[in-house]
Each structure stands twice: as structure tokens, then as C-alpha cells.
Design a protein that fits this description.
Blueprint (H helix, E strand, L loop, with lengths): L2 H4 L15 H18 L6 H26 L7 H17 L5 H20 L7 H21 L1 H4 L5 E2 L13 H25 L1 H11 L1 H6 L4 H27 L1 E2 L6 H14 L6 H19 L4 H15 L3 H12 L5
Antiparallel strand pairs: 1-2
Helix pairs in contact: 3-8, 3-11, 3-12, 3-13, 4-5, 4-11, 5-11, 8-11, 9-11, 12-13, 12-15, 13-14
Length: 335
Amino acid sequence: MTQVEDAGVDARPERRRPRWTPTGRRRAAVAALLAAALYAPFQLVPFHVFQLTMVLVYAVALLGLNLLVGHAGQISLGHGAFFAVGAYTAAVLTHGPGLPYPLTLPAAAVVAFLLGLAFGVPAVRLRGLYLALVTLAMAIFLVPLLKRFEGVTGGSMGLTLPKPGPPAWSGLAEDQWLYFLALAVAVASFALVGSLLRSRVGRALHALRDDEGAAEVMGVRLPAYKTLAFAWSAMFAGVAGCVYTWVIGFVSPDSFTVNLSITLLAGLVVGGLGSTAGPVLGALFVMFVPSIAQDLNEAAPGVILGLLIIAVMYVAPTGLAGLAGRLIRKIPRKE
């Protein structure tokens, strides 16, 4: 028997608790968030379920905008136009040919993708304010265009559509069924974008955002990736617009004015450019802050909204996602 054993001391090496890696913490947070999302519609009243559904819709739209602005370094003031194209594609196909709801989703995605591909061509030669003006022009002329083709779009009166009803086997109410449809689309969209950003395409987009000259020297084809960034961004906006049509059951040109594009961009900046949580936090901003501004001052809600944006950006220059990350890093960890 050794002296260490005689002294009653365990000679075996001390086992340390494995520390969570950032990836492990991120996965745990996503799992907890998803579990809460699955549980929420059974505990909330229908109106609050509707609000959460709209948050998911806006999160998908901002996911596409984040891909373009946050990861590719481009600018767009016309993202609401792609949102409207997806909404009207689903509405027209449902109202006219009577296309089943599930088929309107890929149709809206394809139409918005092709439109984004067409508008992505000017992005090859334009930058900064010039590119912003081109995208802004798209958002401006879309509303009069929708009103002009009254026979297809319903003109100023819009189109009223029946909402997708829950199947009998689900046992869900209509608001819960629409929520889960939006949740499924949002989860699939975030998974697709996450996979895209982890691939060679994501590295090329980040190189394009950081330094176009260096990216070109490294072999990144700038025209192709700039155009595709617009197309992918538009596609997710179109998907969000399609789900918006399912949830609201009505589309009108006045729902897709320039204010929508500006609000989406402001929401993304407030949420956090280039971050995973940015689109979700931005969607919460887009859904709730304008209504709060309206309640605070019915005469000038835009002034209140602007002041709220300034206050948030003063406290969190990198967005709410960046602020949350800094607060989490300040929490002392046990060794």
C-alpha cells in the first residue's frame, strides 16, 4: 500500500466537468427556443397567436434581407416589393386557377427569385446610394402597377381569399394551424440559409462584403454572387409574402407601400446585421414597435417610431443581437 493510499487521498486524476462550447450553447438555445415556439400557441389567446405568426412571417422576410445586406454587403430599399410579389403570386394563383395552397409557396418563391435575379443585374455596376435608389424605385412603382391591372390583382380593392383550414386529424384551431405552417416555413428557411452560409457560397458573400477588390483577387466572381444574393434575398421575401397571404386572407396594394420596405430595413438594423438572431429580433420590432408608436401618439406615430429607433441604436450600435451577445459575455462563468 502506497503512502498516498495510507493518507486516504484518492490518487486518480480529478475529473473536470466538460465546458460548453459556443456551438453547444447555441444549439441548446435553439432547442429551447424551438420548444417554446411549439408550446406557445396552446397557451395564448388567438390574437396573440396571430401576432406570433406575423413575427414568423416577418422573420423569414428579414432573413432574406439579412442575407443581402448583412452577409453580402449590398443595400435594398425595395424589399417590400419582393414581399408583395410573393403575396400577390399566391393570391392570384389561389383566386384564379384555384391552385392548392401548398403549391403556391414554391410558385411565389420562383417568381420572386426570377424578379430578384432581374433586379440583381444593376447591382453588378451600382453601389451605395445609387443601388439604394434603384431598389427604392421598384418599391415606388409597384403599388400603382398593382392597381392598374385590376382584372388580375383586384385593383385598389385587393383580393379576399379563404385561409387554409386545419385538417380534421390535427385537432387544431385555425389560428394554431396557421401558426404551425408559418413556423415550419421559418424553420426550413433558417436551416437553408444556415447551410448556405456555412458553404463556399457563404464565404464568398462575406469576402464580397468585406472587400470587393480582395474578393475578386481571391477568385470570387463578383457579378454572379451579387446577382445571386439579390435573387436569394428576393426568394425568401416572396416565401414570406406567400405565408402572409395564407395568414391574412387578403391582399391590397396599400399594404405594400414604400413604408414597408423602410420598416423592414430599419427592423433588420435594429435586430442586428449579419447575426443569426437579427431577423427574429427585427421581426419583433416590425410587428410591435409601430403599433406602440401609434398608441403613444396617434397624430405623429412616425416621429415616435424614429425616436425609438434612435434610442435603440444609441444603446446598441450593433443591434439588439449584438447587445445581447455583449451581456451574455459579461456573465461570469464557473471554472
